[in-house]
Design goal:
The chain is mostly beta strands and 187 residues long. The chain has one domain. It is 6% helix and 55% strand. It has one helix and eight strands; from the N terminus they run αββββββββ. The protein has an eight-stranded antiparallel β-barrel with strand order 1-2-3-4-5-6-7-8. The N and C termini lie far apart (44 Å).
C-alpha cells in the first residue's frame, strides 16, 4: 500500500509549485508572452531577491501535468517587499517508489495581478518533491524548485536560485495548495 501511495503521489506531484497558466488563460510551457527578446544585464550588477512568502494553487490536468497560479512575496536589497504574480506549468519527469519525485516547471512572472506586465520566464529542472505525510485523500509535500534559466528580466538568472514550498495535494479533486516557505532569486 505504501508503494501504491508513493506512485499515486508521484503522478499528481507536479502541483507543488506549478505556478503556471490559470484555467481561464492557459499558456503553453514553451511560449514567451510579449516580446521574446532576451534582455542582457551587466553580470557585475546581479540583483538578489529573497523569497519570503506566497501561495501556490494548482490543478492537475493529467496524471503528470499541472497548471496554476502563485504569488511570490520577495524582499529587495533595499528591504522593501514586492509581490510577483506567476502563471505556471509543471510536469513530472521521474516518479519511482521510494524516491523523491522529480519535476520541471515553466513560470511566467508578472508584476501585476491582471497578468499584463510581463517580466520574463523562469525555468526549473530537477525539482525534488518529497512526501512528508498521507491522510487520504490529502498528501503533504515538501518541494524545492531549482531555477536554471530565464528570459527577459531574468535572462541572467543564477542557477543557485531556488524556491521552497510545502503544502497538500488532493488526490480526489486534483486541486492543490502550497505555501511558499523561502527562496532566493539571483539575476
Amino acid at each position: 500500500m505504501k508503494n501504491i501511495v508513493a506512485v499515486i503521489t508521484g503522478l499528481t506531484l507536479s502541483s507543488l509549485i506549478l505556478v503556471s497558466c490559470s484555467s481561464q488563460n492557459p499558456t503553453s510551457p514553451a511560449t514567451d508572452p510579449g516580446n521574446s527578446s532576451v534582455i542582457s544585464q551587466n553580470p557585475e550588477e546581479k540583483r538578489v531577491l529573497n523569497v519570503i512568502g506566497g501561495q501556490v494553487n494548482t490543478q492537475s490536468i493529467s496524471p503528470t501535468e499541472q497548471i496554476g497560479t502563485a504569488t511570490l512575496i520577495v524582499e529587495k536589497e533595499n528591504g522593501k517587499s514586492l509581490t510577483l504574480y506567476v502563471k505556471l506549468y509543471g510536469v513530472i519527469t521521474s516518479a519511482e517508489p521510494g524516491k523523491p519525485t522529480v519535476l520541471r516547471h515553466d513560470m511566467e512572472i508578472y508584476q501585476d495581478p491582471e497578468y499584463t506586465k510581463f517580466r520574463g520566464l523562469l525555468h526549473s529542472e530537477g525539482d525534488q518533491a518529497i512526501t512528508t505525510g498521507v491522510d487520504f485523500p490529502l498528501v503533504t509535500i515538501h518541494e524545492t524548485v531549482n531555477i536554471v534559466s530565464g528570459t527577459k528580466k531574468y535572462a541572467t538568472v543564477d542557477p543557485a536560485s531556488s524556491i521552497v514550498v510545502t503544502g497538500t495535494l488532493n488526490l480526489v479533486t486534483g486541486q492543490n495548495q502550497f505555501d511558499v516557505i523561502s527562496g532566493i532569486l539571483i539575476y
